[in-house]
# Entry
Amino acid sequence: MSSMPLFHLAFPVDDLAQARAFYGGLLGCPEGRSSDAWVDFDFYGHQIVAHLSPGEAGARSASAVDGHDVPVRHFGAILSMAQWEALADKLRAAGTEFIIEPYVRFKGEVGEQATMFFLDPSGNALEFKAFGDLSQVFAK
# Structure
């Protein structure tokens, strides 16, 4: 286990089997403990928990960022550029419908990053990003 603190995120899903297929299958997140009402996943070293709560997921509002409508409520991970590119290729091959197609935002500016947004089967928005230079993650 890392000496760095880990985050824990619980979120609603409509169907646990779909959540298992998406997070465990497509995204490759190993499953941890579970019950009839929830499933833990190892989300790149952090704990996320899909809680069965039909109809609660998917409400979206957006904020304008770099000419795109970014879902305000979203979560995801910062990957290495190689991991990000591999995930983008995997998602495209799986026919994923992107909210924001994979691209590089803030090109040539402080905080330049590769990003993509898509939904899980319950409508929860996810963002995966990568920085060529990790020192830029919190740069102003």
User: Anything to note?
Assistant: Residues 81-93 form the longest helix (13 residues). The two ends are 30 Å apart (CA to CA).
